[in-house]
Specification:
about 180 residues, alpha+beta, 2 domains, 4-stranded antiparallel β-sheet, two-stranded antiparallel sheet, 6 strands, about 20% strand, globular
Length: about 180
């Protein structure tokens, strides 16, 4: 569209040359784009300031199929075929989620190979026999002030309780992603 406008304007004699018109049109837009990028980064920075860390822990529970296998057994890439092969039976999902609920966890979201849980830090450390420490991670470029997120990291390996071992392959604490590296 831009090229067509420049070409038509040049042909009609409204602009001295297509090059000059492109320069006149692009220079302000580049400055505008830079100003918009700065404004967006400022808004994101303000929205992403790290609030005081709650004692809530969110984790991904990776389940085992009835045969004991899990998505963690995949060698190579995870594909649509791989996911189908390691899809966990509904009975396993139901039993594992009920047991974790009985222990005091909330089941937030269920997927084909596991689910997300939430619980307080003390409960998590007790059930999974670990120690958690709060860490911070910069999630936007370092030029943006306050663009970091807090998260928990296990400093002692997470252990699956014996009564859950046949259902749960692993429990993973997510690390915040880095945006616009």
């Amino acid at each position: 569209m831009f090229r067509m406008v420049v070409l038509l304007a040049s042909v009609a004699g409204l602009l001295p040359t297509a090059f000059e018109s492109a320069h006149m049109l692009l220079a302000p837009s580049l400055e505008t784009q830079a100003a918009e990028n700065t404004a967006i980064a400022t808004v994101l920075s303000e929205q992403m300031e790290v609030p005081p860390m709650s004692e809530k822990v969110i984790a991904e529970v990776i389940l085992r199929k009835a045969d004991g296998s899990s998505i963690l057994d995949v060698e190579g890439s995870i594909t649509a075929e791989t996911i189908v092969k390691y899809r966990v039976e509904q009975e396993v999902i139901r039993e594992a989620s009920e047991r974790l609920k009985e222990l005091g966890f909330d089941v937030i979201q269920i997927g084909p190979v596991g689910f997300t849980i939430s619980g307080n830090k003390a409960l998590f450390e007790q059930v999974f026999q670990t120690t958690l420490e709060m860490r911070r991670r910069q999630v936007l470029s370092t030029e943006v002030a306050g663009a970091e997120r807090a998260y928990y990291q296990a400093v002692v390996p997470i252990r699956i309780p014996a009564n859950l071992f046949s259902l749960i392959a692993d429990v993973v604490l997510p690390i915040p992603p880095e945006y616009f590296p």
